[in-house]
Amino acid sequence: MNVPPKILVVDDTPRNVKLIADLLEATGYTAGTAANGTEALARLDEEDWDLVLLDVIMPDLSGYEVCQAIRRKPATRLLPVVMVTALDPDEERIKGIEAGADDFLPKPVKTEELLARVRSLLRIKELHDTVNAIITLKNSGKAEEAEREFQKIKSISDNIIALLDSLEKKVKAGG
CATH number of the domain at 6-109, out of 3.40.50.2300, 3.30.420.240, 2.30.30.40, 3.40.140.10? Predict the structure, then answer.
């Protein structure tokens, strides 16, 4: 049985947190929540997460500051982070990417877009995790196991390409 990916939803607006967490759980993910940046960083220290959905404007630490803190820690530096904000999308996207975010979603969040971006980033994370496993296996002299893991990478990359093609077609079709 596969363990569902764990996604940390960080927002100081309880309604936003509940809507996104409920959507993720209804889709088969495990969702955890944090009401501010300090709580988010504590949760990231306590547990392993697969992805973070991070509000930009929060009272204690901004989403940018939280994202920068995530990138400074070796254990979380490659953790996928999606910035979510109601501010000007173009301006905030640049700030988010400069802070180390992997992706950006404007509010109000569109369900289909959120889920597509989550799936895409989780596939990339799985690819990264598999590459690390292959390196570990290869370094320990387990070539056959490393080859099996390499085949997983090929399958994941094929899935990512198919997802990106699907998203591109939807965007071109206006939906």
Answer: 3.40.50.2300
